[in-house]
Automatic annotation (TrEMBL):
Span of domain Peptidase M48: 73-247
Family label: Belongs to the peptidase M48 family.
UniProt keyword annotation of Transmembrane present: yes
Organism: Marinimicrobium koreense
GO terms under biological process: proteolysis involved in protein catabolic process
Protein name per UniProt: Peptidase M48-like protein
This protein's GO CC annotations: membrane
GO molecular function: metal ion binding; metalloendopeptidase activity
Keywords: Hydrolase, Membrane, Metal-binding, Metalloprotease, Protease, Transmembrane, Transmembrane helix, Zinc
Transmembrane segments annotated in the record for this chain: 23-47
One Pfam assignment: Peptidase_M48
PANTHER family linked to this entry: METALLOENDOPEPTIDASE OMA1, METALLOENDOPEPTIDASE OMA1, MITOCHONDRIAL
Amino acid sequence: MGYQNRQPPEGINYEPQGWQRDFILLVLGFAAGLALLTWLVILVLGWSARWIPFSWEQSLSDSLNEQLEPTERTEYLQTLADELARAGGLNPKLNVVVHHQEQETVNAFATLGGHIIVLDGLLDEVDSEQGLAFVLAHEIAHIHYRHPLQNAARQTGLGLISALIFGRGDLNWLAGSGGQLAMLDYSRKMEREADAWALEALHNHYGHVAGADSLFRWLAEQQQAGALPEWLSTHPDTEARLERLEQLSNARGYRTDGTLTTIPSVAP
C-alpha cells in the first residue's frame, strides 16, 4: 500500500461560534473558581481561628494595654463587665479589659485580646444600667465566641487572596485591614449570637431583662428621624432585633419587668 497525502477534513480549523463564547466561558469559570476558593478560605480560617491560643490574640493587642488609664468610669465599667462575664459563663480562659473613650458617638465594640472599647456617647444615651449592661454583655459575647479573631482571620485571608491574584503584597496593610474590620464588621449572624448570650447574662445577673432594649429603642427613634449611625449598617435591622429579643425573652421565660438601676455618676 503506497503513501497517500490526504487532504484534511473541510472546516477543521474553523470555529463556527467564534472565540467570544469560549472567552466568556473561561472568564466565568475563573470567577466561579475564585469565588469558591475565597469562600473555602474564609470558612476554614474562621472555623480554625477559635483554636488559636488566647495568649496569641492578646499579644496582637498589647498596644491597647499601654493606653489603659484607670479612671472612676473605667473601674465602674470593668466591675460591671466582670459581673456580667461571670453571669453569662464567659470561658474562664478568657478575660475582658474595658476601656472608655471620650467620644460623643453612641457605640461600643470588642476587639482582639478581650478588649472592649466603650464610647462615652453610649453612657449619655442609655437611661439605665441594664441598658448599658446589655451592650457590655453583647461585646463580652463576641469575646466568648472569639468573633474578633475569626473576623481578623477571614479578612486577612481575603487580603492574601487579593495579594496573590492582584499583586498587592503589603502585609502591614493586610494586617491593618484585618484588625480594623474585626472591630467593625461583625456579621449579622454573630450579632444575633451575641444578643442571645447577652440576654442570658442580663437575666442571670439582675433576675430580669427589663431595660435590655433601651439602646435599640433609641436607635429605632434615630432610624425614624433618618439619623441612623453608619456603623449600624452591618447590624441586623433594629426593629427585627427588638422583636427577636422579645421572642427570646418569652421563649426562655425571662421576666421583662423589673427595677431599673440608675447609672452612677463617675468621673471620666
